[in-house]
Amino acid sequence: MSNPSILILPGDGIGPEVMAEVRKVIDWYGAKRDLAFDVSEDLVGGAAYDKHGVPLADETMAKAQEVDAVLLGAVGGPKYDVLDFSVKPERGLLRLRKEMDLFANLRPAQCFDALADFSSLKKEVVAGLDIMIVRELTSGVYFGEPRGIFEEGNERVGINTQRYTESEIERAARAAFELAMKRNKKLCSMEKANVMESGILWREVVTRVGEEYPEVELSHMYADNGAMQLVRAPKQFDVIVTDNLFGDILSDCAAMLTGSLGMLPSASLGAPMANGRPKAMYEPVHGSAPDIAGQGKANPIACILSFAMALRYSFDQGDEATRLETAIEKVLADGVRTADLMGPEGGTPVSTSEMGDKIIEAL
Amino acid sequence: MSNPSILILPGDGIGPEVMAEVRKVIDWYGAKRDLAFDVSEDLVGGAAYDKHGVPLADETMAKAQEVDAVLLGAVGGPKYDVLDFSVKPERGLLRLRKEMDLFANLRPAQCFDALADFSSLKKEVVAGLDIMIVRELTSGVYFGEPRGIFEEGNERVGINTQRYTESEIERAARAAFELAMKRNKKLCSMEKANVMESGILWREVVTRVGEEYPEVELSHMYADNGAMQLVRAPKQFDVIVTDNLFGDILSDCAAMLTGSLGMLPSASLGAPMANGRPKAMYEPVHGSAPDIAGQGKANPIACILSFAMALRYSFDQGDEATRLETAIEKVLADGVRTADLMGPEGGTPVSTSEMGDKIIEAL
Ligand SMILES: CC(C)[C@H](C(=O)O)[C@@H](O)C(=O)O
Ligand SMILES: CC(C)[C@H](C(=O)O)[C@@H](O)C(=O)O
C-alpha cells in the first residue's frame, strides 16, 4: 500500500517559514514512527499569483482534490492589496474550500496553561478554556449569488447574498453534534434568527438534527449575544456551531481570548473520499503576518498543531496526535518561547526553526 | 414656543422599570432646570403585540415620526419566541429604525473607573476605555431584498441580502467622521472587503468621504480582525464605523469589554427635521432581561444615560448631559450599586428605583 499523501501549500508571508518546521515534524514521523507520507508542495495565494497570474492554478486545485490531506500556511500581503478582487490571494483559499467542499471548519480555542497570562482577559476567565467552534465553510454570504457591485440609478450598490439550504445546514450541524458527542455533549448554535430568515431556517434545521442526538444539550443564541458571552464567560461553551460569516468573526474573537493566536490550528473537513478519509485541509488560524515574514520570528506551533489535527482527523492517528501535542506542551512548560510568546516572566527566546528543533527533541 | 416632545416606549421586560427612573430624571429637569418636555408614552414590542396584535401600531409609528425624540426601553421575551417572524417584538424596533430612517447608531463603549474591575478583561486593558462605534442602522442584511425561506428542488433555502448603496454608506461614514472630528480624530472602518463586494464598495466610499476630513486618521480593518483587536487591545480605537450586521456583533463585543452592560446607552440618529433637530431614538444597549424583570433588580443607568445622549444630540444641552453623567459617576463613586454592579469590593445595594432616587439627589 502506498503512503498517505499530503499536499503542502505554504502560501505567503510567514507561511513558508512555519511550514518548513512542519516538514521537520513530518520527516520525524517517517523516520521514527514508521509513518511515512508522500509529500508534495505547491503554490497558493500571492505566491501563486506571482507565478501563474491566479491565486490557485488549476493543476494545484486538481492535486488538492487527489491527496489525502492539504496543509496550508497562510495567504495575503500588502503587495497584493491592489489586485482585482477576482485574483486576490484569498480567492485561492476560498476556491480550495469551495471546490473540495470542506463544509466543516473546526477551530479549537484552547488556552495553554503555560500561556494563560498572555490573554487580555483575566486568568481565571480563560485558564483551562477549551472550546471547539464548528464554522460552516462552503456557503452563506461568502459564496451566495447574486453578488457584485452594480449600477442602480445614478449610483452603485454593493450586493452579497446570504444563502443556506437545509442540507447545507444539516451537514454542518451533524459534524458539530458528532464532535459534541466526543467532548462534553454541549452544543450552542448561533445565528440572528430574530432578524434573518436564513437564521430561522438554521435554527430549525439544527434543532431537527439535534433530535438524533438526545444526549447532547443543545442551546441557541443570537450571534451578537454570542460575541458578548464569549467575552464575558467563555468557559460556558463546549462546542459552538455557526455559519460562515458569523463563524469567521466569532472564531477570531474566541481565538483572541486565549491570547495565543500563534498557537491555534484549524481543520476544514468535507465528505469521505473513496478511501474513507474525509476531504481535508489543515491550516493555522493566524494569517500571513507580512510584518514579521522572513525574519525567523514566526511561531510555527499553530501550523504544527494543524498537522496534529491531520494525524487525528485524516490519518486516524489520535495517539500520535496526542504525542505531538504533548511534546509541544512540554517545550512550552520548559520556557521555550518564540517572540510572540515572550512575556514578562521571561523564558528562552528561540527562532522559528529553533522552536521546530525543540519540538522534535521533545518528540 | 412649545416644549420639546419626547415619546417614551418602555417596551418589554425590564424596559418599564428602567424607564420609570428616566421619567424621574425628566421631571427633575422640568422642575429644577426649567427644561420641560412634553412626554407621551406608548407601546412597542411584545407589549404592543399583546394589545394590538402587532409589535408597533401604526398610530405609534406616526407619533414617533412627529416627536423630537423617542426613548425606547427594550423589546422581546421568551413569551414571544413562538410568534411568527413578522410580528416578533424585534420587528417593532426595526420598523422604527427603518421608517424614521435612523441611519447612524452611536454606541459608546466606555469603561467607568468605579467599575473597571467588572470587566472579564484585565484592568489595564480596559481602564479608561472610551470608544464610539457608529453602526449603519437602516440597511444591509437587516433589510435587503430578496429575503425569506423558499422552496428549491426538494428542500428549502433561507435567503437574506446584504445591500449597500453608495449614498447609504456615505451618510453613515459622514456621521462617523463628524464624531471623530469632535473626539480624537481617529476613525477605523470595518468590513470584509477581502470576501464581500459590498465591503469593497464600503471601503471605497468611506475612503472618498475621508478626503473631506484630512485631519482624521482613517484606517480599514477586516471585521474578523476587528473583533480580535477589540479583545486584544481595545484602546487602540477611537471611532469605529461599520455596517448594520457587523455593527450589531462588534458593538456588543465592545460593550462587554467594559464589563458594565447595564451602563451603556445608545443613540440612533437620522436626517435633520424641519426644526433642525435630527430624527432620533435613544435606547440602552442591554436587552429586556426577562429573567430579572419586575423584581426591582434592573440597573436604570444605561437608560438614564440614553436620556443624557438625547440632551446632547437632540436638545443641544451638552452641559446638562454632562451634569447628568457627572451625577451618575458620583453615585457610583459613592459605592451605590444595583445587583449587576455588586462586586467583591461591596457597596451599598439598591433597587432600580433607589438608584434613580440617588441620581436625582446627586443632581
Ligand atoms: C482570509 C479570509 C478569506 C478568511 C475568511 O474570511 O474566511 C480568514 O479570515 C479565515 O477566517 O480563514
Ligand atoms: C433586538 C435586535 C433586533 C437588535 C439588532 O439586532 O439590531 C439588537 O441586537 C440591537 O443590537 O439593537
From TrEMBL, chains A, B:
SUPFAM superfamilies: Isocitrate/Isopropylmalate dehydrogenase-like. Binds 1 Mg(2+) or Mn(2+) ion per subunit. Its cofactor is Mn(2+); Mg(2+). Pfam families: Iso_dh (PF00180). Its main location: cytoplasm. The record marks Y142, K192 as: Important for catalysis. It is found in: Cytoplasm. It comes from the Bacteria. It catalyses: (2R,3S)-3-isopropylmalate + NAD(+) = 4-methyl-2-oxopentanoate + CO2 + NADH. Keywords: Amino-acid biosynthesis, Branched-chain amino acid biosynthesis, Cytoplasm, Leucine biosynthesis, Magnesium, Manganese, Metal-binding, NAD, Oxidoreductase. Homodimer. HAMAP family: LeuB_type1. NCBIfam families: leuB (TIGR00169). This is 3-isopropylmalate dehydrogenase. It comes from Thioclava sediminum. The lineage of its organism: Bacteria, Pseudomonadati, Pseudomonadota, Alphaproteobacteria, Rhodobacterales. The gene is leuB.
